[in-house]
Amino acid sequence: MEPNCTAGGAEEEHHGNYSPNPSAEVTPGKHAVAEALEEVQEELIEHQPLEQEDLNFEKWKPKPKPKRTLHEKAFDVKTYLWNAETREFMGRTGHSWFLIILFYTALYAFLAAMFGACMWCLMLSISPYHPTHNDRVMPPGMTMSPQLDGHYEIAFNASDRKSWKKYAKLMEEQLRSYNDALQEQRNIQCPQDAYFMQDDQEESAERKSCQFKRSWLGECSGLQDPHFGFSQGKPCILLRMNRKGVPESLGELQFFPKSIFNLMYYPYYGKLRHVNYTAPVVAVRFNGLQYDTHIVVKCKLNGKGIINDSPTDRFLGSVSFSFDVGA
Question: Region entry Disordered: which residue ranges (predicted)?
Fold first, then answer.
């Protein structure tokens, strides 16, 4: 009987763990089936045709903002300029404005200091007496006076004061700095026919200048004849450099003081050192110009190393001008 009792107890224990409701336990296979069904249903829903209500895109558009009145706009501008609640001016507090002003002040002060330092270093490397770039014509050039507005044409009637008065006025202005008293006050007498060399002095030392007196120009000085010969049909001109050929139509020529430029006025040391430098001139008086004739005059410089026949530069070693003189 004991063995039966033992067996009955084991069976009884087994029945105690048995669940009478079979739906209380779900096997793993049933879970997989349920999930698969849900996925199929979702796919079917996605592929269903859209309803007419869903195709109405107008409802998805953003609604237009209501128009703002002028008063509202003015209020916003006023608030932007000064917001009393946050105590902000143009969107920034006083502390923020202070920091940004301080930053830009320091930035531009640094840039200005750096630029000034660069310019200072550059100026230290440049000599005011010997420029590194020179666009002047190296061989001697030649100019003449009088000339009106850069035109090298002299046209007048000897009997018409208005036609030549402008030329006489220009001549007077050109020769004013050559007055004898002014030359004696500023410049010195130099030995003639030799270069006046002053290279033995310091670079920044002022160089002395040689006298060139107005009285040396004789009849073309304007001292005896303030009209410079224009009223007589015998005009005078001033040349800044050397000799010239004499065609027959020019008639007799007179040169004052000579037909050369004396060497004592050279070399020229520049405006900073040759402060009172007076450029020598040669005055030419045309005593026999033919009236009512267009006469073209070309003056050339002759000397060692001088170019006076350049086909591209009419002022290189020469100058051209014309006369039209009426009685």
Answer: 1-30
